[in-house]
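Quick one:
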Amino acid sequence: MSEQEAPVFSIEKLYVKDLSVEVPHAPAIFLEQNAPEITIQMQSGAEALNEEVFEVVLTVTATARIGEQTAFLVEAAQAGIFRVRNVPQEDMNPLLSIGCPNILFPYVREVISDAVIRAGFAPVILQPVNFETLYFQRLEQERAAAAAQTPQ
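Output:
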């Protein structure tokens, strides 16, 4: 395989695309003695910038509630620009949905933890994520939805 035909995958840039921190019930929320209940939501998406350059964004939202009150809401969108060339088309979705989020995850994990600390709370440490499992679960859900819409 010549050098021109060899697959190319490179990271062009990693950056925080968006960051939001809300503490809607400050300062009273800091007087609460109960531990907050924390929920995490995560999504990723990819967009072609040109034929061989893609932006992938991994967005994580951490919400902490104490009873009915929101203690904090932190949302971070960690993005990367990736150059991909000579990769078979059937490998593009897994690369952009599994490989790139795996690269972005440690960065968004740090951004979330740091933002929560700066908001005055104990750090939120995101547990490791298996993006491969999530990818195949999403494919299965899409297949099931398509099968449900097909007339019998």
